[in-house]
Amino acid sequence: MAVGKPEFIIAGLGNPGKQYELTHHNAGFLCMDILCNKLGVRCDKVKWQALVTTAVVNGHPCLLMRPQTYMNNSGNAIKQAADFYKIPPEKIIVLFDDISIPFGTLRIRKKGSAGGHNGIKSIIYQLNSDQFPRIKLGIGERANADDDLKDYVLSKFSKEQCEALKKSFDRAVCALELMVDGDLDGAMNKYNG
């Protein structure tokens, strides 16, 4: 089905490759899987260093992206697509993991700093803007603050955690529907926490 020129980019962040599939750092990819399932599409066309597809989200044509550049260079893929479709940062919605919020919760923001997240740093650098909305997917803090952060974010979710996350990803998809309608405040009021 022809979708038309995308109004929005929705990008889920993660790392490509089997070894990263169910890791904490791939929460953005996992959330995109839930969105694609709901919309009945497959995000599997290779373009702009990403896996992409187009779909209609709540009446709005969107480009769905899973950058394949590895997390730290996510901005490269997003900038190429944004330039091609002339989509401003305000209409680029990014889904990504966040260790600073409790496991299974969401934090929706209209804009903001990278907060130490390398994927977001890359997007801010490439777009030369931090004015893009985002949904932070809470993966929780390390059990021990002395544990290596990289080891934690690249560790795999347990089966129980995957089940719990599915509920929060379902809520993120509902939030996206409000966000593409321009109701960011409504999305934050309803789904933050």
What does this structure look like?
The protein has one domain: Rossmann fold (3-Layer(aba) Sandwich), CATH 3.40.50.1470. Helix content is 36%, strand content 21%. The chain is built from six helices and seven strands; from the N terminus they run E-H-E-E-E-H-E-E-H-E-H-H-H. It has helices at 27-39, 74-85, 118-127, 149-153, 159-180, 184-191, and strands at 8-12, 45-47, 50-57, 60-67, 92-98, 106-109, 134-138. It has a seven-stranded mixed β-sheet, with helices on both faces.
Using only C-alpha atoms, the radius of gyration works out to 15 Å
Task: Give the end-to-end Cα distance, rounded to a whole number of Å.
Answer: 36 Å
CATH topology: Rossmann fold
Helix content: 25-40%
Secondary-structure-based class equals alpha/beta
**What proportion of the residues form beta strands (DSSP E)?**
15-25%
Order of helices and strands: EHEEEHEEHEHHH
CATH class descriptor: Alpha Beta
Corresponding CATH superfamily:
Peptidyl-tRNA hydrolase
Question: Per the principal axes of the C-alpha atoms, what is the gross shape?
Answer: globular
Summed over residues and divided by their number, the pLDDT gives a mean of 89
Neighbour order of strands in the largest sheet: 2-3-4-1-5-7-6
What is the makeup of the main sheet?
7 strands, mixed
Number of helices: 6
CATH architecture grouping? 3-Layer(aba) Sandwich
Poorly predicted ranges: none
Number of strands: 7
Outline of this structure?
The protein has a seven-stranded mixed sheet, sandwiched between helices.
